[in-house]
C-alpha cells in the first residue's frame, strides 16, 4: 500500500513508504508549528467502484430468516441491552447510527459477515429493549454500554464496527477501552473536534422528521440520485427483520439526546487528543456521494488515527451497506483477516 498525504494543501509535498517514519516527522513539524494536525499523512487505499447490488428481498440466504434466532437481553448495572447474536468465527460487534435501530442494518450485509464471523447487533440505549436507568446520557455512556456488552458476552479479539453516529461511539470506546477492541471499522462517520462537518440543516431535518413523505425524504439523503429508485423499492425488504422483532419507535427524548451527542462531538477536543493515541488497526470507509456525513469527515479521521487505512467508495451514499452488501462485507472480512 502506498503511503500518501490526502490533502489538497499537502499533495505532492512529501512521499514516504513507511507510515511510522512519516508520521513521526509530521508530528515533529506540528510541534514546531510548521504543520497543522489536518495535514498529517493518511494511508490511502484508493477509490473502489462497485456495482449496485441491492437484493430487494431476494431468495438469497438471510440470517434473520433462520428459525430460532431470537432477541436476547443482557442485564447490566446500568440497565438492559437488547441484542442478536449469530454466525461463527471471531466476533464483530456493530453499533448503529442516529435515530436507528438494529432493523436499519442490511440483512444480506450481516449474513455475509456471519459466514466468517460471529455477528452481534444491538440497540443503543433508549431504543427497543435497551433501556437504561439514566435518561440523560453522553457518548461516553453509549461507549460504556458497548463495553458492557463486550464484557457481558465474553467477546475476545472483537472487531467493532460503527456506522454514522455509531462510529462516534466506536471512537469513544477505542479511546476509553482500547483493550476490548482488536480491529476498528468506521463506516460513514465523523471525527471529533472543529474539523468535523455536521449534517447540513436540510439533511438533519429530513432524518429527524416524520409524517407524510418522510420515507422518501430519508431515502433522498441516504442514497445518491442514481441509486434512489432501487433504494425506495428495496430498502424495507432488505432490512434486518427477525421473527418477533418489531422496529422500535424512536422517541423525542432519544432524538434530543442523540442530537446533543452529535453537536458536542464537534466540540470535543478531549476526544480529538485521545483519538491520536488510538493505535488499534482501523479501516475507514467513506462513500464519495455521502450527503449526511460528507467524505471529508473520513479524510480527517484518517489524518488523526495513527494506524488507519482509508477506502473511498465511488458513488457510495451514507447507507452504502444497502448499495453494496456483498462487496462491503467482503472488504471488511479481508481487513479483519489481515495481521
Automatic annotation (TrEMBL):
**What name does this protein carry?**
Alpha/beta hydrolase
Gene3D superfamilies with a match to the protein in the record: alpha/beta hydrolase
Organism annotation: Caballeronia udeis
Offer an example of a GO molecular function term for this protein: hydrolase activity
What top-level branch of life does the organism fall under?
Answer: Bacteria
Keyword Hydrolase included in the entry's annotation: yes
User: Which parts of the sequence belong to the AB hydrolase-1 domain?
Assistant: 91-195
Q: Which UniProt keywords apply?
A: Hydrolase
